[in-house]
Design brief:
Length: about 260
């Protein structure tokens, strides 16, 4: 696991955007796994800037998002489909048919979840998966105690996750109770993954994920089993790491160490 502690939040977002852009440049036809959440918004802002400047070309790229709320159709403004359209897809020369999210309005969400896993496999698998982390250690919507062998499926959201997401919904709207999420085994099959965590609210979950035992109690700890996982952190999210000095020696400023 590569642990990159950046000087500040903006640098962490930029490092993440650079890794995504490198994956796109490395292979025309790259398959990206994407994530939503407030942490990702500066990353997508950087990608929009690069699209506008002509330094990023997503026209050959296929995308699969981690998750979608059950019960929200793609035209609901808080659906992750609408969010991704707003944050990235509308700005990109990317055929909409190449952008995939689970269909939150599917009449049979369990069947939709299986279809989604099959669609990822049919696309050849995910080259680079972008991840956030919940304050409770979730990745995607794999809440604590999710099986480390789980596939894409319907999950019930915890009260903590619903409270965190309530800020995106109006006062009269209830945050959804269920989501279709890629499973932990699905995420571990990506050829590489990068998790971005910023702010003090993530420090405990980040420490458990990187330095705790591999445990379903902290789903992000499963990334310790991934052969190519990069954790990109700002100083606040890195605050509880015991081996922080070591990570900063190996990757000064979140960069590559001269060997
Ligand atoms: P956040 O969500 O970026 O809004 O904190 C991250 C997550 O829950 O995965």
């Amino acid at each position: 696991m590569r642990v990159l502690i950046c000087h500040d939040t903006a640098t962490a977002a930029c490092r993440t955007a650079d890794i995504l852009c490198d994956a796109v440049a490395a292979r025309h036809g790259a398959v990206l796994g994407l994530a939503t959440g407030g942490t990702m918004e500066p990353v997508y802002a950087l990608l929009r800037d690069r699209l506008a400047a002509g330094t990023l070309d997503l026209s050959g790229t296929t995308t699969f998002n981690l998750d979608e709320y059950v019960g929200l159709a793609g035209d609901h403004p808080q659906s992750y489909r609408a969010t991704m359209n707003r944050l990235l897809f509308d700005a990109a020369d990317l055929r909409r048919s190449r952008t995939h999210l689970p269909d939150g309005a599917a009449s049979d969400p369990a069947t939709e979840a299986r279809r989604y896993d099959a669609a990822i496999a049919a696309a050849g698998g995910i080259d680079l998966q972008l991840l956030g982390i919940g304050g409770n250690g979730h990745i995607g919507f794999n809440e604590p105690t999710s099986s480390l062998g789980s596939r894409t499926r319907v999950k019930t959201l915890t009260a903590e996750t619903r409270a965190a997401n309530a800020r995106f919904f109006g006062p009269e709207e209830e945050a959804p109770r269920y989501a279709i999420t890629m499973g932990i085994a699905t995420i571990l099959e990506s050829r590489s993954c990068v998790l971005l965590a910023t702010g003090p609210g993530k420090a405990a979950a980040v420490a458990a994920a990187i330095e705790g035992p591999v445990s379903a109690a902290c789903p992000a700890s499963a990334l310790q089993l991934h052969p190519s996982a990069t954790m990109i952190l700002d100083p606040e999210a890195a605050a509880d790491l015991r081996l922080r000095d070591y990570y900063e020696t190996v990757h000064p400023g979140g960069g590559e160490a001269p060997l």
